[in-house]
């Protein structure tokens, strides 16, 4: 009988095969773990994320993924502001939502900014468009009224159970925009502020730490950007998440009617900072370039990007 010239070869081969099989299993486990802990899993771990992954068309759409209802709030039933209209997602299956209060400008009523109500709410926010105590109220008063409306919304309104009171923001047009800066100055816990062609005698805002997106308009003769929106932006702390978007071929009153550029960047800002939803960073960073609708965009990429 012929002797096996390598008597130890078979056991060594079996051990090698076992090691290779173990290594294959380990590699597969690591790959699976990488898949589970990749960007998709991290996004799913964000408890504030609402709605499907965004696209350029989804943030430009007239309506987002949520059906919306609205309810009127009488000025007689509130104190500190003039009542308004609450727009909210009808679904409760996703839990609570962040909330935003919006103030109109000098001499104006909530109807002037009502288009933002359902548009923002359909993306997954509770939105309160308010009337002010009088149409002549100045920005500091409008700032206090925005905060009073937020307190009403989260503490006493019929939709308070739908709201996460730790995730709140303010917006406003003209003197209401100046008021949104006042509100952010007074309440640093706010997650986002969006002044729309804002007006205010105070030009510098070193006290504001809230992530702030300011819209200006190149043709604004009521609150010219050189003396309002631009110094407001420059007066925010450089370490704050901040941006300045100057609308092209626009006027002081451009925010008073449906405007896709205002909507898409407002949605992206609110989603990123109220919902901590990094899926929307793609629309804010790299910084948007000048276009048919954008004259200029300044700012920083969201911190933590």
UniProtKB/TrEMBL annotation:
Per its UniProt record, what Gene3D superfamilies does this chain match?
Answer: alpha/beta hydrolase
Q: What SUPFAM superfamilies does its record include?
A: alpha/beta-Hydrolases
The residue ranges of the PET hydrolase/cutinase-like domain are 42-302
This protein's UniProt keywords = Disulfide bond, Hydrolase, Secreted, Signal
The molecular function GO annotations come to: carboxylic ester hydrolase activity
Q: In which domain of life is the source organism classified?
A: Bacteria
Q: Which residues form the signal peptide?
A: 1-43
Main location, first listed in the record: secreted
Q: Where in the cell is it found?
A: Secreted
Entry-linked Pfam families: PETase
Record's Gene Ontology CC terms? extracellular region
Q: Which family does it belong to?
A: Belongs to the AB hydrolase superfamily.
The name of this protein is Dienelactone hydrolase family protein
